[in-house]
Design brief:
Layout (H helix, E strand, L loop, with lengths): L7 H29 L6 H33 L9 H47 L6
Helix pairs in contact: 1-2
Length: 137
């Protein structure tokens, strides 16, 4: 079940409405308990508050589940409109691989240069050894 696309402002308004519903849930529960604490509670009043409590709580649960589902999709990188999380993660990983490749190329370049230097020293020593006349013992 996918959630219809909506802007961040729509999401914030939805969360604001959920918050108001939570306040209504608490208020309904408080009113029901207040009525029950009376010496002679009015059953119809208690039932009305409990019904309001249940209805609003069900709405809160449904709306929060939708929001959690959306956030789960965003955090797992599933494709959906309005999020660049997956693209950002892909870019971040590509940049990390590029940095690693650059570091490795620089290390290989240093090894190559050291090897060339050693080879040049060996050739120079070889040339110097050929130019010197043999020494008598």
């Amino acid at each position: 079940m996918s959630m219809p696309s909506s802007s961040p402002m729509d999401r914030l308004m939805t969360l604001d409405n959920i918050e108001k519903d939570i306040a209504t849930v608490l208020q309904s529960a408080g009113q029901a308990l207040t009525e029950l604490s009376k010496d002679k509670p009015a059953n119809k009043q208690v039932e009305a508050h409990v019904a309001q409590f249940r209805q609003t709580l069900t709405n809160v649960e449904t709306e929060l589940a939708k929001q959690i589902n959306y956030l789960t999709q965003v955090s797992t990188g599933q494709a959906h409109e309005g999020s660049s999380y997956n693209s950002q993660k892909t870019l971040q990983m590509a940049m990390h691989r590029l940095d690693h490749a650059k570091t490795r190329v620089n290390e290989l370049e240093a090894i190559k240069n050291k090897h060339i230097q050693i080879m040049q020293q060996h050739q120079l020593q070889k040339q110097q050894g050929m130019q010197q006349p043999p020494q008598a013992l």
